Amino acid sequence: MKFLKSPIALLFAALFIVAACSRYDEGGFSLRSPEARLTQKWEVEQATDKDGNDVTDNFEGSSITFADDNTFTQTFTQMGQSVTTDGTWEFEEDKTQIITEIEFNFGGVTFTETDTATILRLTGSEFWVNSSDNSEIRYMSAE
Fold first, then answer.
1. Model confidence over 83-107: pLDDT tens digits?
2. 3-class DSSP state for residue 31?
3. How far is the CA of 54 from the CAs of 29, 69, 125, 133, 140, in angstroms?
4. What would the pLDDT profile of 25-49 be if each residue is shown by its tens digit?
5. Is 2.40.128.280 the CATH number for 25-141?
6. Which of 33, 67, 81, 90 has a 20 to 30 A CA-CA distance from 7?
7. Structure letter (DSSP) for residue 8
């Protein structure tokens, strides 16, 4: 018991417990809230499809910016044209998943696209998700 009475030993024990209780599979501990880490501009660093094939080239020039008012702006290239979409985002209750929703109008009909992605890693510089279609996207901070 003498070991636990030492302030340094207590500090190491507390850090070990906090690190062991990481919210995301890929670890990472931060004193910043998940919202504070997420709200910034992200660019795709690596992407794989559900079969594990590298599809990073499909995301060249793509970025997503999450704002603290629970909105986001996504920019990507489709058929040689730059496309920008806006939507809303929210965390699931335990903050291990993120739900995004985009509304768009096509031919006078409004469509809503909702996606729930599992967060694998969320640090100040990395944001990794496994999308509902089992693809994995690894974002890197653009800031």
1. 899 999 999 999 999 999 998 777 8
2. coil
3. 28, 33, 21, 15, 16
4. 555 566 889 999 999 999 999 999 9
5. yes
6. 33
7. H
